Amino acid sequence: MNLPRRLLCVITDDSTDPVELARLALEGGAGMVQLRRKKATGRELFQWAVRIQALCREQDALFIVNDRVDIALAMHADGVHLGQQDMPASAARSLCGPDAIIGVSVSCTDEALKAAAEGASYIGVGHIFPTFSKDKPTPPIGTAAIRTIRNAAQLPVIAIGGIDHDNAAEVIRAGASGIAVISAISESDDPAAATRELVKRIRQ
Amino acid sequence: MNLPRRLLCVITDDSTDPVELARLALEGGAGMVQLRRKKATGRELFQWAVRIQALCREQDALFIVNDRVDIALAMHADGVHLGQQDMPASAARSLCGPDAIIGVSVSCTDEALKAAAEGASYIGVGHIFPTFSKDKPTPPIGTAAIRTIRNAAQLPVIAIGGIDHDNAAEVIRAGASGIAVISAISESDDPAAATRELVKRIRQ
Ligand code: NI
Predict the structure, then answer these.
(1) Which residues contact B172 (CB under 8 A, 6 or more apart)?
(2) ipTM exceeding 0.90?
(3) Where's the Thiamine phosphate synthase/TenI domain (chains A, B) (predicted)?
(4) Where on the phi/psi map is residue A116: left (φ > 0), alpha (ψ -120 to 50), or beta?
(5) C-alpha dihedral over B187, B192, B196, B197, to 10 degrees?
(6) E strands, B107-170, in order
(7) Residue B136 pLDDT > 90, yes or no?
(8) Which domains does chain A have, with CATH numbers?
(9) Which of B74, B87, B94 lies at the smallest CB-CB distance from A71?
(10) Which of A70, A85, A87 is the closest to B87 by Cβ?
(11) A32-63, pLDDT tens digit by residue?
């Protein structure tokens, strides 16, 4: 499946109710929701995923699951997103078939080339700017890395890390197909409005 | 797939190298290895599973994965084992197909009936005796519960919890098809010998 251009992917955080967050993000026009909750049980993920999948279908938005390929398969979700500590993209591709969206987090060209060789559909490139959403001991890679990595891997880039309404357009101009955000939405007082604003900025 | 009678399932613990533990358990004659490592990343589980699957095939032993149906599918493993906090057995059955071994942990008749209705192949019943392997705030259910739960669910029982060479035969006499052990093997000075002794006791 081809990834839509100028896509906003909203990723659930570790404290907000993920179903409610997804609902507000979809209300704001997010094109993709990624369920990510590192410490949740399989049962919790399954139950959230059932509900988020239904919400995404209502809005014609894409739904992907972080790490847990089995949860994605059980939902007939659109795909999965894999970090460098998750199962190899090649294994996920075998399990999910040729049409699934398989995203892989990368922070350099080497990781991007490996993701491409293993059958990734897109690469999540970051972190672009300083961020406190995840533990990030490494420095931000900056917007110039987006085009370099994209051109090397020949895959669409979803940029992540410290992206907000002030820098989102710059990230798209730098060559990203879309952006992924966590705290810009989950920590907003009005997640639907924050999503709407980000969608507007990346479509400018 | 029918579960072999008088089966010894060795479950990996949270500290020992799971591949080495599996190797020794198989050397001692374990009929099944279950990869269980709650805090491991998907990548770690995948890499261990590749090696344990190969060892199990060499010894004609069964290999199942705890919780992560995707890892089991990627290995073409024999099946999965699900706790009450993992994805529903019905979803795992849909993903794995009719021939997969799907075990579900239960501690009472209600959970056992639900597991049976959802397509479980066996029930892991426990904990039978006092145990320190996992956090168990509930009291042990005792050997008499094995037959009660088995007869209600009409599924083979693998008993778990505090089972060692002194009480293994009693558990089989109480109606269990097999036993599952963690610390009895992983905390033994000689895991292969401890496995061999347990296999002998449950075949008496
Ligand atoms: Ni003794």
Answers:
(1) B6, B178, B179, B202
(2) yes
(3) 8-185
(4) alpha
(5) -40
(6) 122-126, 157-160
(7) no
(8) 7-203 (3.20.20.70)
(9) B87
(10) A70
(11) 999 999 999 999 999 999 999 999 999 999 99
Question: What pLDDT shows up at residue A131?
Answer: 82
| Phi, psi angles (nearest 5°) of residue A155 | -135, 150
C-alpha–C-alpha distance, residues B167 and B183, integer Å:
14
- Report the mean per-residue pLDDT for chain A: 96
Phi/psi at B99 (5° precision): -90, -10
Nearest Cβ partner for A94 among B41, B43, B74: B74
Residues of A within 8 A of B88 (CB-CB) are 43, 46
Q: Measured between alpha carbons, how far is B104 from B116 in angstroms, rounded to an integer?
A: 9
How many other CB atoms are found less than 10 A from the CB of residue B193? 14
Instruction: Mark whether B186 is an active-site residue.
Output: no
Strand, coil or helix: what is B2?
coil
Q: How far is B174 from chain A (nearest CA, A)?
A: 31
Instruction: State which H helix or E strand residue B7 sits in.
Output: strand B7-11
Q: Residue B198: what pLDDT?
A: 98
Examine residue A127 and say whether the peptide bond preceding it is cis (omega within 30 degrees of 0). Answer: yes
Place of tokens 């920590």: A187
CA of B167 to the centre of ligand 1 (A): 9
Which residues of chain A have a Cβ shorter than 8 Å from any chain B Cβ? 41-46, 67-71, 73-74, 82, 84-88, 91-92, 94-95
- Phi, psi values for residue B202, rounded to 5°: -80, -10
Specify whether the CB–CB gap between B128 and B140 falls below 8 A: yes
Paired tokens of A89 = 């993209």
- Identify the closest residue of chain B to A88 by CA–CA distance: B43
Question: Alpha-carbon distance B138 to B21, whole Å?
Answer: 28
Distance between Cα B180 and ligand 1 center (Å): 18
